[in-house]
Amino acid sequence: MNKYVAFLRAINVGGHKIIKMSDLKETFQSLGLENVETFIQSGNVIFDSKTSSPASLEKKIENQLEKALGYRVEIFLRTMREVAVIASKGPYSPKDGETVHVVLLNEKPDTQKQKALMSYKSKADDFTVKGREVFNLRRDRNKSVFSNNFIEKVLGVPATSRNLTTIRKIAEKYG
């Protein structure tokens, strides 16, 4: 069995695309996935699967969610091992008042788009791209340009964001 985390994009945020965690869990179980658990209300689903092809599993889950919910929900699938690496290998050590966010992408952005993102580094924000993740150190929330939509626009790929604290809690609890 392989342990995975599905990070869902844009659910239960701002009163839009509300999904009960019990319904989400049932949808994942209907695919034959095992030991399904949800973690907080922002769309993090941990489960076991015999499937060793994350890409095909990701599409299968997205299709099932669309059937169950009536709208498309993008997911960003990572193995628990990948989540543990993200949690432990973050490039920043935030000081008081600073936060680190992890942006999960479905593909590694090309070099030009990475350069475009780096042009937004400032006293308020720092960015580091590591494979299919972008790390954002937000030093000044009021002056920060960071948002999930900002990252999607600059990199030209779908994304979902989580606070590094959430990623670490998932790794600690399920890893």
Description:
The chain has about 180 residues and is α+β, with helices and mostly antiparallel strands. The chain folds into two domains: about 1-80, Alpha-Beta Plaits (2-Layer Sandwich); about 85-175, Alpha-Beta Plaits. It has helices at about 20-30, 55-70, 80-90, 110-120, 150-155, 165-175; strands at about 1-10, 35-40, 45-50, 75-80, 100-105, 125-130, 135-140, 160-165. The strands form two sheets. The protein has a four-stranded antiparallel sheet with strand order 2-3-1-4. Strands 6-7-5-8 form a four-stranded antiparallel sheet. Strand 6 (about 125-130) and strand 7 form a beta hairpin.
From the structure above, extract its key features.
6 helices; 4-stranded antiparallel β-sheet; Alpha-Beta Plaits; 175 residues; alpha+beta
Structural class: alpha+beta
Distance between the termini: 13 Å
Task: Note the overall shape.
Answer: globular
Topology pattern, helix = H, strand = E: EHEEHEHEHEEHEH
CATH class (first level) name of the largest domain: Alpha Beta
CA radius of gyration: 16 Å
Topology:
Elements: E1 2-8, H1 21-29, E2 34-38, E3 44-49, H2 54-69, E4 75-79, H3 80-88, E5 99-105, H4 111-118, E6 125-130, E7 133-138, H5 148-155, E8 159-163, H6 164-174
Antiparallel strand pairs: 1-3, 1-4, 2-3, 5-7, 5-8, 6-7
Helix pairs in contact: 3-6
